[in-house]
Amino acid sequence: MQPEVRRGRPPKQVREPRAAEITRERRRRADLETVGRRLGVNPDILDLENYTYRWINDDQVTRLYQLTELDDYDIVMKNGNSVADRDSDLGEAVSTVTGVLPNGQQQRTYLARKPRKWYEADEKRKQDDLDEQLARLKRGHSREGEAQADYIPHGGINL
C-alpha cells in the first residue's frame, strides 16, 4: 500500500504572536544598560533614593579598609543588602576583576554604598573648606592662610 499523497497548499505553520516578539526585544534593550559594561551592575539591587554608590579597588593595602572601616561605606551583596560583619566572606559581594596587583594576584573592585544623607553632609563639609580657601586666596592669603607680601588691590583679588 502506498502512502496517501496530499495535494494543494501545505498546512499553515503556527507562528508566535507578535506581542511576544516585542516583549522579548524590549527586554534585551533594557539589559543594554549593564551588559557589556565593565562596571555594570543590576539596577534592581540599587536603592538610589537612600544611598550613594561607588566602586572601591581592593589593593590589599589600605583603600578598602579606609572606606569601610574608617568611613561609612558598606560592601553591597548580590541580594542588595550590605555586609553586616566586617569579617564576613566577600564571596557574595558585588565585585569584578579590574586588574592585576604587583604580586600577580587579581585586583577586585567592590561595589559599596553610603547613606545619602551622610554622603551629602560630607560633600557639604568639603565644599565649605574649598569656599574658605577661595575666600583666603581672594584676600591675598595663601591656601594655609598666611599673608602674602605681593601687591593686593583695595577690593581684593578677582578670580
Tags for this entry?
16% strand, 159 residues, alpha+beta
Structure description:
Strands 1, 2, 3 and 4 form a four-stranded antiparallel sheet that branches. A hairpin with a 5-residue loop joins β3 (95-100) and β4. The mean pLDDT is 76. Helix content is 28%, strand content 16%. The protein has 159 residues and is of the alpha+beta class. It is built from three helices and four strands.
Blueprint (SSEs and pairs):
Elements: H1 18-31, E1 51-58, H2 63-70, E2 74-75, E3 95-100, E4 106-115, H3 116-138
Antiparallel strand pairs: 1-4, 2-4, 3-4
Brief description of this entry?
28% of the residues lie in helices and 16% in strands. The protein has helices at 18-31, 63-70, 116-138; strands at residues 51-58, 74-75, 95-100, 106-115. Strands 1, 2, 3 and 4 form a four-stranded antiparallel β-sheet that branches.
C-alpha geometry: elongated
Which bin fits the share of residues in helices? 25-40%
* Cα-based radius of gyration, to the nearest Å: 29 Å
Q: Which stretches of 5+ consecutive residues score pLDDT under 50?
A: none
Topology, number of strands: 4
The fraction of residues in strands falls at 15-25%
| Average pLDDT | 76
The topology string of helices and strands comes to HEHEEEH
Helix count from the secondary structure assignment: 3
Biggest sheet layout: 4 strands, antiparallel
Termini Cα gap: 102 Å
Protein structure class:
alpha+beta
